[in-house]
Amino acid sequence: MAQTIPHYLIFETAGGFCGIAWSDAGIVRFQLPTKTAEATERLLLRRLPDAEAGAPTPGVLETVAAVKRYFQGEETDFSGVELDLAGQDAFFREIYAAARRIGWGRTTTYGALAKELGAGPEAARDVGQAMAKNPVALIIPCHRVLAAGGKIGGFSAPGGSTSKTRMLELEGVNLAPPPPAQQSLGF
Questions:
Q1: What whole-number distance in Å separates Cα of residue 56 and Cα of residue 21?
Q2: DSSP H or E segment with residue 94
Q3: How far apart are CA 45 and CA 47, in angstroms?
Q4: Beta strands 27-34 and 16-22: pairing type?
Q5: Which helix (H) or strand (E) holds 32?
Q6: Is the pLDDT of residue 2 over 60?
Q7: What is d(CA 44, CA 65) in angstroms, rounded to the nearest whole number?
Q8: Please, are residues 66 and 104 in contact by the beta-carbon 8 Å criterion?
Q9: Does the annotation count 142 as an active-site position?
């Protein structure tokens, strides 16, 4: 069986330059924004060295338009985007499916996602590893999965946890500690 070479497109959003790669089966890779098209292309091709620039399919164009809306702060749902997760571990695919159900402006934790899948608390590390290896960040909203206690946790995308925080803020999620319940006397 001949393997198809994925195609890709680099495009600009309000958040920077993103990259998307696809096969006949669906989106295989998504690159979160960087400051330049060259940096985005370099990062995308590091993961898919055989990919070739190509004309996007209608489904890819719809996804690109949704990504642009997302980075303008418009509520966006990526749960219907066709993905090609061939080659991913079966448990990771289960984790990704669960993560895709986390809606706009909502968060969960690595442990809660593991529990949702019927796994024990030790599987929280597996959830964290799956999020770190997420090939289509944003489309599988790994930024909505937090560490224990609602802490930001890691984020392997450009900008690290700062980017994760910005994406959550776009969705109206504020991770800052709440203001003190008691007023200060000011001295």
A1: 9
A2: helix 90-99
A3: 5
A4: antiparallel
A5: strand 27-34
A6: no
A7: 19
A8: no
A9: yes
Residue 24 backbone dihedrals phi, psi, to 5 degrees: -65, -25
List the one residue out of 96, 126, 121 whose CA is nearest residue 111.
121
- What is the rounded distance in angstroms from the CA atom of residue 55 to the CA atom of residue 33? 20
The DSSP secondary-structure symbol of 104 reads T
Q: Do residues 27 and 63 touch, judged by C-beta distance below 8 A?
A: yes
Note whether 81 and 30 are within 8 A (CB): no
Provide the percentage of residues in the chain whose pLDDT is more than 70.
92
Tokens of 98: 């669960």
Tokens of 99: 């993560």
- CA torsion, points 72, 73, 74, 80, in degrees to nearest 10? 90
The amino acid present at 28, given as its one-letter code, is V
State the catalytic residue, choosing from 142, 145, 146, 157: 142
Q: What is the pTM of this model?
A: 0.89
For residue 142, which of 150, 129, 151, 75 has the smallest C-alpha distance?
129
